[in-house]
# Entry
Amino acid sequence: MSAYTHRRRPLHEVTRDLVATAMGREPADLIIRDGRLVNVNTAQMQDGIDVAVRHGFIAFVGDAAHIPGGSGTTVVDAAGRYLLPGFIDTHLHVESSMVDVRSFARAVLPEGTTTIACDNHEITNVFGLRAMELFHAAAQGLPLKVLVAMPVCVPSIPGFEDAGATITAREVAAAYRRGWAQLQGEQMNFPGVITAIPRCTRSSRPRCRRGSCSRVITPVRRSTAGCPRS
Ligand SMILES: [Zn+2]
# Structure
């Protein structure tokens, strides 16, 4: 895995090729024949389904008899095995698996997980913002889609932990700005949310300002635990 780098061309560069393959004018890179499709749009199972892939994108799903194979085309006979979209693991901590993110990808991809939303709370507890930078670098080029959730309470309970690092609202904002994080991590300091500790609400603002924040309204004070407006 360490030598493998996944570089898929941007979709806008290959749309013409995808259409050409879908229409049968140009060969596919990969054709998977005779699968049993789990159609998550119609909630149906469909037998005898082919999938044609070009440039790493799915160009066609259905009866691909009209799509030619070229010298570089790989043909796989699914023989009735299931075809379904990749799984998305919406919350995990890669560090809890005790392996790095590249080894983690190698373990989960064959099982069908193609996207993870991981909260880097554990390494950030120790290394602070530097941990986000290191994790981001380690996740580059993986065939696994890695969406990183920025920890917002490091330490989770101030005064009870001595892990070594502290994350401030300024550092949370920096992680988003530098592209090291895409989501907000767990807010474990629930006493801080309920009692509206400024440190707690400030750390959620950078994510909320970017337009993606789950709104939580508490009976304590409306603006304290949800999406701060300022
Ligand atoms: Zn968790």
About this structure: Residues 213-230 have pLDDT under 50 and may be disordered. The first strand starts at residue 28 and ends at 39. The helical segments are 11-22, 101-108, 121-127, 129-139, 169-177, 190-194, 198-209.
